[in-house]
Structures are given as C-alpha cells and as structure tokens.
C-alpha cells in the first residue's frame, strides 16, 4: 500500500474542489490520483458526502487487479473506469469525473463541444468529443471498465490523451485527466466552462467557428517547447 | 403528539436545505416528515422565513384528520397535499415541495423531464412527469388535497412512487418524496439538477434520447438487490 | 424632516437586499420608503456603493416638491420616478427599482412576463407588463417623472397597483412597490424569479399557458378576505 | 521603476475583483494600471492564482519597450496587448481582460453586443463590438500586440475609446479600459452583465431594439457636461 501522505492530501483537495467549483451536487463526482511506483491509486469512496471526506477515507486500489488494498470502504463505483485510463495512458497521474451541468448537456445531446475560441484552445487542442453509445453487452458486464474503453477508443494513444485531456461519455458526463489529481480537476473546470460558453455561443450563432491559426497560437502559448505562459512563484523573490 | 426530537431536527434540517441548495426564494417550499406510529407529521409553518425557522416552530398535523395537534401556528398551505401522499403511499417518510426554477419551467411548459442520461437514471427510474390540469371544481374546493390526487393518479401505487419519487404539478412545481425528510429534499435537488440539464440538452438537440440499457444499468447500480453504490461510514475504521 | 429611525433602518435593509438577492451589480438599483405623515420619502443616494451605504446616508426628499430636505447628498437619479408613484398611489409605502437580469430581458424584448404558473399568481394577479416607449419629448424633459407616468398609464389606479405591484419600463427594467420598503424589494425578488421561470418555460414551450381558475385560486390563498397563507410569529408561543 | 504603492494596491484590488465578480475561472483574466509619469504599467504576473496574488508580485513593465523593469516574474502573456492600448489612448489609466462567459459567447459568435436598453447605455455609448479575425501572419508574430491593433482599428481614437470603453477580440474575449484599474474592471462587470441581458433578450425577441433618444438620455445622465449621476461621499457630512 502507498504511504504517500502528499498524494492523499492532493487527492483530497482535488475532490473538495468538485463542490467548491460547482461541478456536481450531492456526492456526484470523484477524483483519483496514482502512485505508479506503488502500483496503487487513491480514489474517493462511494457515496460519501464531500463534507465528510477526509484523507484517511480515500480508498487505495491495486492498479493491476482493481482490488481494494486496505480499509473497509468500497471505492467509487467508477473505480474501474479510472483504472482502465491509468493502464492505457502511462503519462497521466490523476483523473476526475463530474456531472457538471453544461458538459452533461453536451454528453446527453450527443454533441462534441466544438473549439470556438481561445478559452478552449488554451487547454484543449481539439473538441471535447462524445463517445459512441455502449452496447447492451458492454452495459451488462464490466460496465465501468467498458465506459473507459469507449473513451480510449475515441481519444487514442497517450500523446493524444495529453493533447485533449477530456471526453464526454455519451448520455453520462465528462471524464478529464492530467499529470496529477489537481490538474485533472482543473481540466474538469475548463471542460464545464467551455461547454457553457459553447452552448451560449451556439444560441447566438449556430454556425460559429474559429480560425485554426488563432487556436493553434493559443494552445502553443501554454503547451510544448515554445510555451511562454506561467511563472514559477519560487523565483518571485530577489531582484 | 409526537415527541420525537430526532424527527423534529431532521425535518428542520431538511427545510433549511431548500434555501441552501437554491431550490426556492423567500418562504417558498416546505418539507414534512412523518411519525407513522404516532399518526402525525411535522411540517413547516406557513409563511415563516427559513432564517426564523426552529425545530419548535414545526407544526404537528394529525395524519387522519389533517388537524393541527399542538401550537398556534398554521401549517404550510400545502399541508393537505402532503397528507394525501402519506395516506396513499405507506412506504414514504418525508415530502418536499419547492418552486425550483427549472423544474417549474417544465411544469409550466406542460412537459415531462425526459430521462436523457445517467444523472437522471441514478435516482429516478422514469421521466419526472407533469400532472393533468386540475378542473375548476378541483381548484374550488379541497384544492391542496386534489393537487395530491392528480399526482397520485399520475404516479400510481407505492412501488411506482418509490421507483420515481418525483412529479410536477402542472403550472405549479415539483413534489418529491422519500423514505424520510432528508431523502425527499435530496430528491428535490436531483429533480432540479436533471431539469436544468434536460432544458440545456434539448436546446442543443431537441430529439435527444438515451439507450434504455444504459439507464437501467445506472438505476440498478444504486437501487434494488444488485445495488453496489455507497458505503456505511460507521464501517470505515479498522483494517 | 422625518426623524423616523425605524423607517431609515427599514429602507437601509431593503436597499441591502438588492445585492444580497442578486438583483443588481455595482450601484444599480434603489429602494425608497415613505413617511406620509411627514410628507417625506427616504431614498438611496445616487451612485453610492451598497457596502458604503448607512442609514444616515439615505436622502430625505419632500413628497410635494421633490426637493432634498436635509444633507448634502443627491438622491438616486430615479427619485422623481419614485415621487410620482407615491403621489398617484396613496396605499403604497415603498418602491424598488433594479436591473435584475431576466426582468430586464423582458423589458428589452418588449414582452410582458406572462402568468404561467402559481409562483407568479401567488404574488401578482396579472402579467408583469411593459410600458410603451417614451417619446423624444418625454425623454428630453422631466425624464424620470415621465418614466413613472408611463407606468401609471399602464397600471391604472391604486387598487390595480396593489393587485400587480410590478411593471417593466420599456428597454429599462423593473419597478416594484408595496405597503413598505421591505415588501417592495420582496416583489422585486418575485419579479426576477418569475421572469427567469417564464423565459425558460417559453424556451420549452412557446405557447405555454395556465388555467385561469388555478391562478385565481393561488392569488386568493394569499390575498383578500379569504386568504389563509402565513402566520403571525408573535402568536407562536403558548399551547 | 514606479514606487507608487497606491497604484500597486489599486491594481491588486482590481485583479481580485475578477474572481469575486465571477468574471473568470482559474487564473484567467488580468488587470493593469499605468503610471504615465514613470512610463511604467503594473500588470498581473502570468499564471499566478488570484489567491496567491500580492501587491509585490505585480510586474512593472516599461511602456516604451515592453520590458520587465524589476523582479523575476513574467508579466501576463497579454502584456503587449495592454501596452498597445496605453500607447494609443493617452486618457486611459487601466485595462482589464477577462474570459467572462456571456461576453465570450458574443466574441465566439462573432456578434456585437447590441445596445438594447439603459443598463448598457448608462456606461457604453454604443454596441460592444467584435474585431475582425486576425490573419495567420498577425497570429504568427507579435500576436498579443496585433490583438490590440485589431481592437484599436475597430474603436478608433481616444475620444471613441472613452465613449465605449470595451471591445471583444474575435473568438477570444472582452477587453475593457477606463481612467484607472478599478474603472476598467467595473467596465468588465458591465460588459458581462449587458452581454447576459442581451443574450436573453434576443432569445425572447430576435429583433429587439431600443429608441435612440432613450439611450442618449441615459448616457448623458452619467457622462459629459450635463451629467447628474453620483455623489462625492466626502461631502456627505454636515448640513
């Protein structure tokens, strides 16, 4: 079992951001973070209220088997979805699932969230796409693992997963991921924000679109070799 | 009269959730909880601000006669609606009525809230339906009791009431119920959330729909013999 | 000059409800309350932030002349609109003006807020209507007084003003009134809530309507000789 | 370097208003304020969370060269956009950029925010317009400076910039300005509010419009020689 208290604390704080950022009501939503060296990920327990959640209650799950490693709590019912993502994409360290309103609206409408502006392009290189429907068979057995497989089928390899770290499970809701738990929930915030902007943009102009060169410029300001966004606050002091 | 202080506290907290969860402005909305052994339900007094509400101010009403059992306050004007639900459905222990924005919009539009995704199917087995209009006669006499009868006519028996514990009174608003007061207000939160999601989904895709097998899978994750959602936090400690 | 400290406090609290209830950004919106015996109304000073507002800063205005009675602050630029309402409708004791989003949307669209359900009918006996456009002459001189005259032309006499204590100045926003300052801001809250519900109802069903007998029943539950809504909390104690 | 602590504090408070007023999530958005005598403007550092922001972390930039004058932090990636505005419009003292939802929706839809009522006309003399698309060349080099040039091409001279201190960069978002940092963020609040009202107005009436004489009257109540809105609170005391 992982004894990484920093990971426990990071996963706890990321889970608490879900209600704080208005991404889900009640106990909806969950965040996990992985310790790849230990072969374990920590995930929100199933059905626990965010106000009751503590670092100790997070459930450690074995990455290979999906079995709970310690404690008496069951992990989120979506645990197997998380596990499949970790197995497929080695670069990711955290995963978030929410039922945020506007992202769910796109998932339920069966429409991708199109890239209509720089808010979207600053974080996601392409549209936030919706999976195909699962088959009755995929729903009947290993449903949660199959949910991930449909997302992986849509997204592709690790590089593609880094370029657009978000997808919508059809008639369900958004899954986002990132290098750690905190980054994955940040992507959930962006996903909801750009979905809301897109819904309102389409109400004003059903054929809205954006020039690709503008989008590329914004994505490259923040990502890749030429990125020039952000600061390291530890360098702030001194002349 | 019931001297169940735990019930008083539970009904008080459930009422306070209404403004906290943004389900109603001013004094709109009310929650009740029933003590079936005592033959009494406790309900919010009429027209009292949520900030002024205390456990002592809750009004005890006789389940058989609808008469106030103690105190000088009148119960919510919707008291008779609650009473009719308790009489018809023996399994329910709490009832919530709100004027939450999106649920009211569907009630005023005369449209059911369709099951468009898993957020809805996690809690409600079918659409949240709208009653027929009341007749002039039903409005003229015993209006509040007749409001419940139109809902009961729509929903059916106790089993059906458990499967989808929510309905919309036409041109009025949502009524939800559950095994206790807290669960009924939780269902009011879900009802408003799925109504908002549905309204936005329909704006993106007027013919949106969801595969029945996905919805069934989600409902059965949380309800019935095969349910595997949730935890008992009292079991959390120990290895 | 009025030395009614209770009125000062009531008008202050009513003004503070505007930002608290989300009815206006920045310094938008204003509430006044009248002391008819003294022939004076107290109104928010022009352009003062709600956080800076104190009871002492409220501006006393002479009901007959519209002149400031004491202090060096100018009253709200809408002071003359308030004055015209007080002069025309003897029963009203308070007036509120806001720029709340959905009420403004109807005012800008030139559409009445229709009575689509009981939330509306509980407070307003008819639609919240929009005035005609002011003429260039009415805008050029005595603009604020003329704004009130267009509302009065729409609403009619004192009895009609009590039945539906709200109107929308075309391309401007809502004015509401009531027996005192607190009641007028409560009506502003209802006005915004029913405008939001109506906008969303019309998005779901452009021809939505409600049976008149249901609306009448709800209005009469709260208003007139047969009203049975509400409690006097001072009677709450004792058996 | 400017040692104007009052400017530092004003720019800090203006930046903090962005999340407080709900104008942007995460680290999106930035405010700057200029010290024209010193030839320097202070701007938010790139990618710093609002909760971590202090007056000391604001980055001083040389107005002529765009170079950082002191400290080790990089300025906002939008620094060059700010600089171009300061160089072109001598009357302005502060600039705000946000990704507020409804203003972005208009920017992404490629539609101006039309003047549909007095809320808009109280602050902006004309529509909040959208720039043309930048060319691939303008995006490839000096992108941020070119973003400002497209806005300046749309707005015109200093007088025009004062009359309507807001514009939408196409597929990007709003830029607003004012006599100081605080006023620029106030204009960002107005810009978002009127965009939301306009979107909802157009949903109710796609051909909504307002009489020009009403709009002119409102703009002149607050601006120019005949303005009569507002108070100087320092004059509030005494008879």
Automatic annotation (TrEMBL), chains A, B, C, D:
Query: Which Gene Ontology terms describe the biological processes this protein takes part in?
Result: pentose catabolic process
- Entry EC no(s): 5.1.3.4
**Top class in the EC scheme:** isomerase
Q: Which InterPro entries match?
A: Aldolase_class_II_sugar_metab (IPR050197), Aldolase_II/adducin_N (IPR001303), Aldolase_II/adducin_N_sf (IPR036409)
GO MF annotation terms: aldehyde-lyase activity; L-ribulose-phosphate 4-epimerase activity; metal ion binding
Provide the reaction this enzyme catalyses: L-ribulose 5-phosphate = D-xylulose 5-phosphate
For this protein, the record's NCBIfam families field holds: PRK08193.1
This chain belongs to the protein called L-ribulose-5-phosphate 4-epimerase
Q: Which organism is it from?
A: Actinoplanes auranticolor
């Amino acid at each position: 079992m992982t004894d990484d208290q920093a990971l426990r604390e990071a996963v706890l704080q990321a889970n608490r951001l879900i209600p704080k950022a208005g991404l889900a009501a009640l106990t909806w939503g969950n965040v996990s973070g992985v310790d790849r060296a230990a072969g374990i990920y920590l995930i929100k327990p199933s059905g626990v209220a965010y106000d009751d959640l503590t670092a100790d209650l997070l459930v450690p799950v074995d990455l290979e088997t999906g079995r709970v490693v310690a404690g008496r709590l069951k992990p989120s019912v979506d645990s197997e979805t998380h596990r499949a993502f970790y197995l497929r994409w080695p670069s990711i360290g955290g995963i978030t699932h929410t039922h945020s309103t506007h992202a769910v609206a796109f998932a339920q409408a069966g429409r991708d969230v199109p890239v209509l502006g720089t808010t979207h392009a600053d974080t996601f290189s392409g549209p936030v796409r919706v999976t195909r429907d699962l088959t009755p068979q995929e729903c009947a057995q290993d449903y949660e693992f199959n949910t991930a497989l449909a997302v992986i089928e849509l997204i592709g390899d690790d590089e593609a997963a880094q370029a657009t770290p978000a997808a919508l499970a059809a008639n369900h809701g958004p899954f986002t991921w990132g290098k750690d738990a905190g980054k994955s929930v940040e992507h959930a915030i962006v996903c909801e924000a750009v979905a809301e902007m897109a819904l309102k943009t389409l109400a004003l102009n059903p054929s809205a679109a954006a020039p690709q060169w503008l989008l590329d410029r914004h994505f490259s300001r923040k990502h890749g070799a030429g990125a020039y966004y952000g600061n390291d606050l530890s360098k702030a002091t001194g002349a």
